[in-house]
Amino acid sequence: MSTTTPPTTRPGPSRTPGVPVRAATVLTALAMALGTAFVLAPGPVAGSLSGGGYDGRRGLEDHLSASFVDYWAAGERGFPPGLRDVVDYWSRYHLVKAVVAAVLLAVLIALGVLLRKAYLRAGGLTAGRRAALASAGAAVAAFALFSLAMVMANVQGAVAPFSSLLSMLPLHAPHGELAGTLDEIGRQLGGYPDAGGATPPPVEVMVGDFGRYHAVLAVAATAAALTAAAMSAVSWRRFAATVPSDRWTRRVLRSSGLLRALLAAAVAVIAVANTATAADPAPALLAFFEGGW
User: Fold this and answer.
1) pTM for this predicted structure
2) DSSP conformational letter for 124
C-alpha cells in the first residue's frame, strides 16, 4: 500500500496591511529628485531660455538696481531693454519652479494616498508600525503643504515678475541714484492717485502690477481653500457612513476631516488678505518701499 505525500505549498505573501514598498520607494526617489531640481534647475533653465543668466544673486540685484533707476528716469510705461531682460528672466525662473513644484506636489499626493490607505488598514498592526506609518504620513503631508505654497508663490512670480523682483532691491540700504529714485517713488505713492499733477507712468505700472501680484495669490488661495474644504467634507461624509464598530477608520477620517477644515480656514485668510490688497494696492506698495511690508 502506497501513501501519497500531499503536495507542499509555499507560504503565500503576508496579508498584513502595509505599504506597497516598490511604489513607495519609486515615489520617494522621484520626490527627492524633484526637490533637488527645484533648487538647482530654475536658474540654468531660465538663463538658457532668456539668452543668458546672471552671476548669482548679487549680479541679478546689481543689474536690477541699475535698470530700475533707468526705468524711473525714462518716465515711460514700457521697460527699457535692461529691465525687460531681467523681468523676462525672472518670469521664466518662477515658471520653471512652479512646474517642478506642481509635479512634486502630485508625487507627494500620490505617496500620501498610499500611506493613508495603509494607515486605514493599520488597526491590526503593532503600535510601533502604526507610529511609523503616522510619522511618514505626517512628513509627506508637511512636504506637500510646502510644495503647494511653492506652487502658489511661483505662479504669482511668473505672472507678475516685476513686483516679485522689487523684493530684490536693496530697500533697507539704498545708495546713490537708487536712493533718490526710491524717495521720489515714495512721495508719489504717498499721495496716489491724487498727488497733484500727472502720475508718472512707472508708478501706474508698479501699482497695477502689484495689484495683479496679489490678485494671483488671492485666486490661487481661494482655489486651495475650496479644495481643502471639499476634501474635508468628503472625510466627514465617510466618517458618518462608517459603522461605529470600526473605530480605527472613524478616528482616521475624523482627524483628516478636522485637519483639512483647519487648512481651508488658514488659506481662506490668505485669500481674503490678498483680495483686499489687490483691490487697493497703492498703500501696501508704499509700505513695501518704506520697509514695513
Assistant:
1) 0.85
2) G
